[in-house]
Amino acid sequence: MPDSPLLPLPSQPPGTPWPTTEWPRAESRGRSGVSAEALLSEIDRLVRPEARERSGETHAVVVIHRGELVAERYGDDKGPDTTMISWSMAKSILHALVGILVREGRLDVHRPAPVEAWQAEGDPRAQITTEQLLRMVDGLDFIEDYVDGDASNVIDMLFGSGKADVAAYAEALGPAHRPGQVWSYSSGTSNIVSGIVGRIIGHSREERLAFMRRELFDRIGMRSATARFDDAGTFIGSSFVFATAQDFARFGLLYLRDGVWEEQRLLPRGWVDHARTPTPASDGEYGAHFWLARNGSGIFHCSGYQGQFVAIDPSRDLILVRLGRSEPEQRGAVFRSLDRIVRCFPLLATGAEPAAP
Fold first, then answer.
1. 92, 143, 218, 354: most buried, per Cβ within 10 A?
2. What does pTM read for this prediction?
3. Helices 36-47 and 331-342 sit at what angle, rounded to 10 degrees?
4. pLDDT band at residue 149 under the 50/70/90 scheme
5. Is the pLDDT of residue 328 over 50?
6. What is the 3-state secondary structure (H, E, C) of the chain?
7. What is the CA 252 to chain-centroid distance, rounded?
8. Beta-carbon contacts of residue 37 (< 8 Å; ≥ 6 apart)
């Protein structure tokens, strides 16, 4: 649990339209409260071609402040209508789908996970809860390694022997630890959750995709969003949602606004706090299918392989989307650039001036 209360989540400012159809733009309303010159300089430092050696390719940066789009920049041949891959940011979208089922009373995350493959008498996995899966403390023996293909469960699951039925592949894994004791990041765990969600929603890929569109994507205007399914009809919730940078920002705004959109509650009360409450075994690094900043800022974020980020900062009423392609050794430079962009904006509680770039 956090050492201090979670930062309050800001409401949509009065008079600011919800971006269900299009993003309101701050330049026409004069409410960004930041130096446009400093902000654009930091974004340019990240996107320009000369930055590739330091931080890799940045395909898109979108900045949302107080519910308005204040800046966007695209690299190479990308633009506002270009759909790009989420990689593991899909896990956070999966958290929202679970929340919708919780709101509807169709799933209790604190009960043992409804996985038929674990129900044989004496199977220790039968006591794993959906909550433990969401927090990745299920104890299953899954190796998340993107370099050593021979030893990697994630590569085998997504591109090898498990690709036709990713949930079944992950459900077949044996236990390595007692549930709740050890945190271990696992794309297999997410696909087990996705299998649970799919079986509750419907029997076919078409039913499941229709639910995602009707209850989430269309409700918040993510009209570019599409999900990839395996041959068994399971949404590959570990890795594959495609959307524009502006639509990923819409997803961030749903969580910044506590699961409310156009004054209607889409996620259960407290579900966003569920996402951003630290999992004790993760040493403050992970919540529930969301990553957490460990610098005390209160930022929580969707994160994907190759440096995809939707950073959500309640202290500044800010969303920062970065999509691109960076190697592991370049991530530090990406984080430093994103931190400088964030610090261009004032803290809501103190009204402090933005830090100098």
1. 92
2. 0.94
3. 170
4. low
5. yes
6. CCCCCCCCCCCCCCCCCCCCCCCCEHHHCCCCCCCHHHHHHHHHHHHCHHHHHHHCEEEEEEEEECCEEEEEEECCCCCCCCCEECCCHHHHHHHHHHHHHHHCCCCCCCCECCCHHHCCCCCHHHHCEHHHHHCCCCCECCCCCCCCHHHCHHHHHHHCCCCCCHHHHHHCCCECCCCCCCCCCCHHHHHHHHHHHHHHHCCCHHHHHHHHHHHHHCCCCCCCCEECECCCCCECCCCCEEECHHHHHHHHHHHHCCCEECCEECCCCCHHHHHHCCCHHHCCCECCCCEECCCCCCCEEEEECCCEEEEEECCCCEEEEEEEECCHHHHHHHHHHHHHHHCCCCCCCCCCCCCCC
7. 8
8. none
Second-level CATH architecture of 90-201: 3-Layer(aba) Sandwich (3.40)
- Please write the tens of the pLDDT for every residue from 171-206: 999 999 999 999 999 999 999 999 999 999 999 999
Task: For residues 162 and 249, give the distance between their C-alpha atoms in angstroms, rounded to a whole number.
Answer: 31
The residues, ordered by sequence, that sit 6+ positions from 70 with a Cβ below 8 Å of its Cβ are 25, 26, 27, 32, 34, 39, 63, 64
Q: Please give the pLDDT value at position 35.
A: 73
